[in-house]
Amino acid sequence: MIEKLDYQAAGLISGLEVHQQLLTAHKLFCRCPAGLYTETHDGEVLRHMRPTLSELGEYDGTALMEFKTKKEIIYLLNHLNVCTYEMDDTPPFLVNQEAIDVAIELCLAMGMDIIDEVHIARKQYLDGSIPTGFQRTAIVGMNGSLPFKGRNLTVTHLSVEEDSCREVNDKGHRIVWRTDRLGMPLTETVTGPELVTPEEVRDAITLCGLVARSTGRVRTGLGASRQDVNVSVRGGNRVEIKGVPKAGYAVKLVHNEGIRQVNLLRFREELHRRGFREPGDLRLTPFDVTDIFQGVDLGFMQRAIRGGGRIFAARLEGGLGLAQFPTQPETTFLDELSGRIRVIACLDEAPVVLSGQVMPEFPAKHRVMERLRRKLRLGEHDDFYLVCGPEADCRTACEEIRLRYVDALKGVPQETRQALVGGFTTFERILPGPDRMYPDTDSPPTRITEARVAEARSRMRPTPWERFHQFGAWGVLPETTEFLIRRGGVTIVDAVVAMTGADGRVAAMEIGQRAKALARKGVPMERLGAAEWVQIFDLLTNGQLSREAIPALATHMARNPGTDAVTAMAHLGFGLQPREVWSHRLTGLSMEDYRIDMGDSDAKRLRFLAGRAMKELLGKAPAREVADYLRSRLTQEAGL
Amino acid sequence: MTDAKLPVIEREDPYQGYRGTAREALERYGIGVWSEVEVVNDRGSLFKGVVLPRSVTFDDLHIVIKLFNGYNVGVAADRIRSARELGYKKAHYKIPEKAFPVDARKKNVTLLGTGGTIASRLDYRTGAVIPAFTPGELYGAVPELADIANMDTKKLFGVFSENMGPEQYIALAKAIGDEIARGCDGIVIGHGTDTMSHTGAILSFMVQNSPVPIVLVGSQRSSDRPSSDAALNLMNAVRTAAECDIAEVMLCMFGPTSDNYDLLHRGTRCRKMHSSYRSTFRTIGATPLATVSRDKDAQGRHFTYLTDDFLKRDKTRVPVINPAFEEKVTIQYYYPNFNPDIIDGLSSMGYRGMVIAGTGLGHINKPLYPAVKRAIDKGMTVVMTVQTIWGYAQMYVYDTGRDLLNLGIIPMDNMLPETAYMKLAWVLGQTDDPAEIRRMLLTPVNHEITPREPHNGYLVLQGGLPEVEAFIGQHWK
User: Fold this and answer.
1) Contacting B residues, span 351-390, partner chain A, CB-CB under 8 Å
2) What pLDDT does residue A606 have?
3) What share of chain A in percent tops pLDDT 90?
4) If we measure between CA atoms, which residue out of A592, A587, A596 comes closest to residue A616?
5) What pLDDT is recorded for position A181?
6) pLDDT tens, A309-337?
7) The dihedral sign for the CA sequence B201, B205, B207, B212
8) How far are the Cα atoms of A231, A353, A396, A621 from residue A358, in angstroms, in the given order?
9) What does the alpha-carbon distance between residue B411 and residue A56 come to, in Å, rounded to a whole number?
């Protein structure tokens, strides 16, 4: 079910952080190869992340600290793609200048001002996704814009940064990361919060992707570009939806986040209505209730007890039914609690948390619940939450429930949420702010001279909007142009037009539209580069090849790498014959099997005959001439 | 801040690190370091943030601004078209102090500071590391220490590891003597890692017969980063000082690069073997003394002793503090084409001792013999160690070695070159009698010479070999 939301009335605004891997030979701060992925490992390293003092303020032994220091982080290493830099056992080498150059080109494409002296900063992450505990990142350009739906979409800045690890699994107090992707150069393009509908978010993601692709210097394929979408509604707060893999997925995610925030604001009203205004109004008391649930036939509880764990109930005074407050279709505030507990208290056994209102059925439930109520001294307006697992984690969980309610008093907490299938999200971490960033004392700054910027400018290829204009003027459909930009076909069209004098529209149609159809049928069209297409179009412009024979010829060349166009033509028996020769072969052409019951007309008859003729004459006679010939024959026959 | 009312030039150090064009621009627009500014350049780009101090090693053309989004950028001074100060906020270098809890049941450990930052907090604006040193600061930074021992701290000096020298060694040895006399249960010395094993060696000679552990500790990744080894090293070092049975001068640093356990290395027998790895220190020609872990093992122990050949903790024992040091001692790393002038030069400059790190079993080439002879005749003590690091100087095996012995070079057996340097300086600081010098050098104080090298004392696994790959696949690197 899709709940409706009037985006304008809700004041929904959204901005993007588009991450794009760059096509460089090496990683950003070491000499490891970039883009070499492995699924096996030949070494493991164990680490912990210790929050540095200032981000927590004064240390008070909080549960957060406990959790963070007690999470075991395992890195899987393969000597083919990581060195001691990635493991934080060697300081960074000087920043990869190739990556800086690509970043400059991208900045210029978006009309940005290039930073005079690029400084590397560290952005702290404690989830272990980067072994140092921070990501090295640097702003290369700022103050740019993209032409978008008749207006300018602000691009606040572009930074170049190192990619993180890939998560293998995360269970309890142990998270495992694969390191092959770690350290690869990425750019992050940040737009202003100017997108006002989910559809605009989708289209802006597509546009940013096209800009990156148009440089020809970025990586493509799964995971090569990922976006974070920031969403807020009026009175809400910035929530970052992380890891949106495809533009199309953004629509539902943004919509649902809008709904979530509107509902959390309603929830705040409900809390206020019940007299919860200040953190002190929330009286949440944890109880160890293991004895009550000893022997109760609930699998998850018994597993926890057998594993040496405890069962805790947290009583919320005056909180009856609050956790059932809806946040999104099919989700309630209980899911908000569950997300935080799963990540921060490391309790991930389902159900992560139960509330008094949604206890599952089990034998002797009535008696057990009665004992529980007595132990908690549960009043008629009170509610309770149940968690189970290691005692320390249960205590952390109870505290986290309280903290989530404290956040709810203010409305929407700033956080990073992970995109899930189906357009939903779940808590990932507290949103890191500017106070998590500090200068990287290991790296000197890089001065970007005007000469270097000028050189980058001279290397630049036309931007997507310039391409749409250029190809549009030739009559090429925007979808075809988009496909050509995405797959790098634009430069092939450029080469073909420049070197063979072919008609731009024909080149774009054949290399874009028709090749796309072939690729969809499984022909490895990506094997054909500019050289191959120039050979094909040479034959076309020299009159040795008919246009309709191009797909067959290209298919043959794609399937047989190393075959040149002339050899391929010979292999396929192509070669334009004189009119007398091919027309002679059509003398026996008959209308046999023509189904008159399907409707009859001159045009239909002509199409039928032409289809039959071209089966025989593909590559030997131009289709247009064959059609003319057949038309005149039909006219003659009719006239007889 | 009251300074905000002051004109920029009257503030304390308003142009920190800025020179030339960049400084002129700051002056022109009336802004300085820690000014919150709005700067507009020739393309109309707006930079809002805080002006940071600039490293004096950087050029004089750019102004560094920490933008309010957290990133730093360098703005070319000659592209600035306008700039104004919005506010002023000087960095506040203060670590929150909390009284270190004292528990009468816990052991008392003294931390002596030499200058490294084993514990610290980070200044997020500059990336500067603010050292935590007093017990209160330490508790603020590594509160777990309170679970291990009661802490007292003394800051002896503030020098980088590479600037440690005789003056510091002597002061350190005396301070150790004082702390032992005051009855502490163990001593931890915070130290930079570059010369930590040098200090370990000299303290092994200057402080003998210690009743309690003396533990040198540092970090390979600075303590401001979440992945630092500093906190774990410090916790393990304090635990070692408080509870370990080994009353010797030791280094406590990561065993593997993983956050797993620390190794306790004997001060005379270890070396920094990697320029940046966490597990950089290795015991050479022997096994480490013990492992120490933050968590207890299955038997409820923090320590696993790898040998029982060590001086046991005994608070009744009286230490011998002997802080002698001759500064005119050198160490020379031999290489083909080593010029005899160097030895003659050192001799003429009055050097009294020279450690040679020779090739193979302890060799140098023939053209050097006359110069060595001249130096020894002039009174220089010349000793031989091996640049192979592992193994013994056995100069009787080849003619070359025998010739050198005849010249009067003293072979140092399997003493590490840096340890030999420290021992020679310490011995020459006490006597100039050749026989006594030779006797003292060759009489081991604490395993700097060992009579036997165990077969597992030389382990440099070669990656790539199937059996080694299988091994490292099963154990933390």
Assistant:
1) none
2) 80
3) 70
4) A587
5) 97
6) 999 999 999 999 999 999 988 899 999 99
7) positive
8) 31, 10, 22, 75
9) 56
Structural tokens at position B416: 């590490």
Residue type, A336: E
Model confidence band, residue A448 (pLDDT cutoffs 50, 70, 90): very high
C-alpha to C-alpha distance for B187 and B203, rounded to whole angstroms: 12
Q: pLDDT at residue A634 above 90?
A: no
- Rg of chain B on CA atoms, in Å: 27
Å between B441 CA and nearest CA of chain A: 37
> Is A392 an interface residue toward B (CB < 8 Å)?
no
Which strands sit side by side in the sheet containing B262-266, from one edge to the other? Answer: B150-155, B108-113, B186-190, B214-217, B249-254, B262-266, B290-292, B303-305
Q: Which of residues 103-132 of B touch A (CB under 8 A)?
A: 121-128
CA angle A583, A589, A592 (to 5 degrees): 165
User: Which residues of B fall within a CB distance of 8 Å from A47?
Assistant: 227, 258-259
Name the E strands within A379-467: 383-389, 415-419, 425-430, 437-439, 446-447
Rounded to whole angstroms, the Cα distance separating A451 from A359 reads: 69
List, for residues B414-454, the tens digit of each pLDDT value: 999 999 999 999 999 999 999 999 999 999 999 999 999 99
Give the burial class of A542: count Cβ atoms within 10 A of its Cβ; 0-12 exposed, 13-18 middle, 19 or more buried.
exposed
Looking at residue A64, its pLDDT comes to 47
The average pLDDT across B146-156 equals 93
pLDDT at B31 over 90: yes
Interchain contact, B476 vs A444, CB within 8 Å: no
Number of other CB atoms surrounding residue B161 within 10 Å: 18
The mean pLDDT of A487-512, rounded to a whole number, is 91
Q: What is the DSSP letter of A168?
A: E
Residue B93 touches chain A, beta carbons under 8 Å: no
Is residue A235 predicted with pLDDT exceeding 80? Answer: yes
How many helices (DSSP H) and strands (DSSP E) are in chain A?
A: 23, 23
Q: Is B59 an 8 Å CB contact of chain A? A: yes
Q: How many CB atoms lie within 10 A of CB A628?
A: 11
pLDDT at B408 over 90: yes
- CA A351 from centroid of its chain's CA atoms: 29
ipTM (interface pTM): 0.91
pLDDT at residue B441, rounded to an integer: 98
Q: Is the pLDDT of residue A586 over 90?
A: no
> Which residue from A43, A113, A133 is facing B477, i.e. has the nearest CB?
A43
CA distances from A336 to A80, A233, A340, A392, B230 (A): 41, 18, 7, 21, 36
Q: Which residues contact A180 (CB under 8 A, 6 or more apart)?
A: A36, A37, A38, A78, A81, A82, A166
How crowded is the C-beta side of A142, counted as CA atoms within 13 Å?
21
Asked if residue A165 has pLDDT above 70, the reply is yes
Which single residue is written with the structure tokens 């510091």?
A: B168
Does any CB of chain A come closer than 8 Å to the CB of residue B269? no
Backbone CA torsion sign across B167, B172, B175, B180:
negative
Q: Are B206 and B321 in contact (CB under 8 A)?
A: yes
Determine the straight-line distance between the first and last CA of chain B, rounded to whole angstroms. 49
